[in-house]
Specification:
Layout (H helix, E strand, L loop, with lengths): L4 H65 L8 H11 L7 E2 L16 E2 L3 H49 L4 H24 L1
Antiparallel strand pairs: 1-2
Length: 196
Amino acid sequence: MNLDTHHVLLYGAVMIVASVGAYAYHLRAIDVATAKAQVQAQQTVIDAAQKRMDDREREFKDQITTLLAMKSTPATTPTQVVERIPQLYPQLQPTLQPAVNPQTGQIDTSKPPNLVFDAPQAKALNDQLVECKICQVSLTKAQADLIDTNTKLAGVTKERDEWKTAAKGGSIWKRTGRVLKWAAIGVAIGYAAAKH
């Protein structure tokens, strides 16, 4: 069977196109496998960030419950207020002064002791310090959540971009380089076949 140059070139071109297609498919499969591995690594980072956020949320709720329990009620005694204030604001160390009978100048044990400042002010101060502490805990949590949210967002964005690139068969330069390389090989083979 005799083949002329045109048939040799045609068969060579078909072989080159089939080879380039098979190789491109193989490279795409490698790109997809690489992207999956990278996505799994990113998912680990995202899961770790989510776990930290969940742990902080539980701790935050516990702290808020503890702080709200320290708020004054009508039944809160001056002694309880004196005990609570240093827990919220260590710089304040209120003391109780025994009640004095104004007529005799003697200590009146029938009356509860007084704070250095009056009880309504102490309760107002206690409530304000509780609110301040809640704000402080909320801010600390929000700042840490922001860091982890940004970490998760960066991971999801990277994951999305990797899948887009893998779905296209790699970056445009990578795909162009592959095509040019195999086209050059095909031309060389075709040229060599035509010479013989």
